[in-house]
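Support reply, case 0932

Customer input (verbatim):
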Amino acid sequence: DEQHKKFLELVDVAKYNLESSAICDNNKIIQELEDYIDYHFTFEEELFENTGYPDLLLHKHKHKQFVEKIRQFKMDAESNNPLIAKKLVEFMSKWFISHILDKDPNYVEYVLNLKNDADKHIEIY
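Our regenerated output:
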């Protein structure tokens, strides 16, 4: 959750910078978002692997699709078109929130079930 909050904070800062009249480096803003999402996805996928999460491959595929879409946007944004950069940030925000609300709860439920099973096993002994 802390990583999700941090990413959304970065998105908010990026939106503000892109919408303000201040001179800013769109590529730098996008790179920061891209770096953080890479960090988060790597962390999340390692957790999935360590717990034997059954939908790991599907989740990794969704992450890969997201990263590919970001790369496409990033190439378009390199023209320094603020509209493209703004669309990219909006896409990242909407997709990430959707991902958190739609996909991540399945993992949370899975881990809670693992914990409950482990607790039951410990109570037996």
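We compared this against your earlier run and they match. Two observations from our side: The CA atoms of residues 116 and 122 lie 10 Å apart. The two ends are 34 Å apart (CA to CA). Please reopen the case if you see a mismatch on your end.
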